[in-house]
Amino acid sequence: MTDLLQAILQAQGGNAPKNLAQKFGVSDSQATSAIHALLPALLSGMQRNVQQPNGFEGLLGALSDGHHQRYVDEGDAVFQEETVREGNGILGHLLGSKDVSRQVASRAAAQTGVGEDVLKQMLPVVASMLMGSLSKQTQGGRTMAAASGGGAQGLMGMLTPMLDQNKDGSVVDDVFRIASGFLKR
Prior knowledge:
Blueprint: H1 2-9, H2 11-14, H3 16-24, H4 28-50, H5 55-64, H6 70-73, H7 81-94, H8 98-112, H9 116-148, H10 153-163, H11 172-183
Helix pairs in contact: 1-9, 3-4, 4-8, 4-9, 7-9, 8-9, 9-10
């Protein structure tokens, strides 16, 4: 999570917290706290999503098209309605319902002191930035892996912490257990 958190905080030329603060009428430090508070729930939702049938493939497909990168590369992306629409779609996949999104915003409000209504509005933008960061790292990992002949190792290196449920440093047992669960259905 630390790498993704830093990638988001450094997004948009290092101005992501400032841009979020400006858009949502909060301080830079409040925007940074909001990202810190929202990201774990988004990553947890992503972890649940990749464990569903075709979830991992769906994530790879979404990351491979490359259009999410603009949410971390372009400073004005925070201010565009498309970012919110895309983010709401991402939230639908990661969290499943508006009720869960509201609960995430409520918990983040309790942690940060930022208003729940502001966090509800910020959540889809942060979700878009998360996908942008993952997409950018995936593309970078593929480029580096291709240059070294390593295939998809860069991508797996990025996703291993999400898939390694028992934190033993290997995803083989976890992926096997997930696949076994799907085969029993």
